[in-house]
Amino acid sequence: METRKYLNEEKYQSTRKKIIVTGVVVIAIALLIGGLLIAKGFADRNIGAEKEILNSQIVEKKYECDSQNMQDPNWLADNTKCLNEVAAIKSKLTDLNSRESNSTVFFMLGAFIMLAGIMIGGFIMTEAYRRNMLAYEAQAVLPVGKEIAEEIAPTLGNVAKEITKGIKEGLKDEE
After folding, report:
1. Among 30, 90, 122, 172, which has the minimal tally of Cβ within 10 Å of its Cβ?
2. Which candidate, 25, 26, 34, 24, places its Cα nearest to that of 114?
3. DSSP H or E stretch at residue 74
4. Which residues contact 92 (CB under 8 A, 6 or more apart)?
């Protein structure tokens, strides 16, 4: 008995399981990465309290710098130090503003990765169920095809008879 090299049910089922697992893994990874990016976007969006604290620190530090005694011999060094501290706080505030504006990018990128992953995983998994879909389509069409064949069969029989008669007459005429 000849063993089939490519067409057997065990290989089909094994490959089908691998395809399903691949599709599920693609979807899971996309949801994980997309979810993490969206969570990062939310985390960067919720920094309003930190910004308020930094703004109040800037106001306090500026007041401190402006209220230093200019007659103090170390005024220039102290004022420079104080203004540098204000600049450092402003830099932190700028970083927070930048993070907050980048949160939209994280939202969009996360949503895109999730959508693309679901689509790709869905296409992969569709391949695993292609045989079932073809069987369903065949079951849906076969009764209609059978009915059409039953309806057309008598007509086709008559057409075949007429063609046969014509061929026979043509053969008799040539003799």
Report:
1. 172
2. 34
3. none
4. 54
With bands split at pLDDT 50, 70 and 90, how would you rate the model's confidence at 97? confident
pLDDT 10s digits, 12-30: 899 999 999 999 999 999 9
If one counts every other C-beta atom within 10 angstroms of the C-beta of residue 7, the result is 7
Spatial CB neighbours of 86, under 8 Å, sequence gap ≥ 6 = 58, 61, 62, 65
Residues with Cβ within 8 Å of 23's Cβ and at least 6 positions away in sequence, in order, are 121, 122, 124, 125, 128
pTM for the complete prediction?
Answer: 0.62
Report d(CA 26, CA 45) in Å as an integer. 28
Q: Calculate what percentage of the chain has a pLDDT beyond 90.
A: 43
Residue 30 contacts residue 116 (beta carbons within 8 Å): yes
Q: CA geometry: angle at 104 spanning 98 and 110, to 5°?
A: 125
3-state secondary structure (DSSP) of residue 57:
helix
- Whose structure tokens read 């703004």? 55
